[in-house]
Amino acid sequence: MLDDARASRGGRRLPFKAQTRFSESGVMTVSSVNLHIGDSVPARRELVLKDGEISFLEWKQEKDLPALHFAHANGFNGMTYRSLLSPLASRFHIRAWDARGHGMTRLSADPTDHRRWTIFRDDLIRFIEPFVEESGGPVLLGGHSMGGATSLMVAAERPDLVRGLVLVDPVMVPRSARLMMKLFRMLGRKGGPLSLADGAERRRAVFPDRATMTKAYKGRGAFRTWPEEVIADYVEGGTKTRDDGQAELACAPAWEAANFRAQDHDIWADLARLQTPLTLIYAGIGSTCRAPAPDLLGQRDPRATLLRIGRATHFIPMEFPDAVRREMLDLDARLGD
Length: 337
Hints:
3-stranded antiparallel beta sheet, AB_hydrolase_fold, hydrolase, alpha/beta, AB_hydrolase_1, disordered N terminus, 24% strand, 337 residues, Rossmann fold, Alpha/beta fold hydrolase, hydrolase activity, 11-stranded mixed beta sheet
């Protein structure tokens, strides 16, 4: 049973399939990729762009279903959320990308020249546009942490693409903290309000193999509340095999750290122009979406659902996946009213 407090404003409360590369000029089947069994079988696909390729997972049934995209947190990848999303495959046509510098996506990721998350916003717009065209209308955007913030930024910039938002503990850095981080950068210091960046830079990137990596993460640090299968999915979707056979994180620690520090975007300005129906799920422990963000988000949608899960940490999708799935289904139903 969830230890939560709900506030709503007028609202209701794996073997892989054929791998396909999508481009603006057409679709080309490339190969078959086999992973492990899940509740539903996703496919790994690629959207080919002029400057690289965006890799993503897709759950697609034969029948027409509402379109849903889910964006991952900093340092993670789409595969991390397989066990969250697979049970929804009978209700949604789902895609889950690997953002720039993460997972299997191949786009430039230079940590030395990275100041704001608008690069992810613009990438997601490019990624969502063909999904909207294929689906025949705007899509539901879900996202965790950085993925939630990026989804919000897309909805503010291109509301025509977005049917609704499910934001799972989105990163909403206070303006005072952003100013402090700029000051630290001007002084040539790496610390500041987001000390997570320092920890990310020290993260071990290379292990003898994926099994050793999975074992090393189990029950430790950020992974201490994660089910083992979710850790295994994170490792599987977020590592590459080196020439010497060792497993290496696909998201370089320097890039993960740069993302924590890259807070020059003004998400509060984006929030102020948001017009999209939304649901917010945020943590009772260590949330990245603290006051006044929940109230301000609720003001943007008179029927918004604001769900605080008191016993949850920032890793809500791993700890309370049923709650996240329920809210995505509830918002879809509300939008269909």
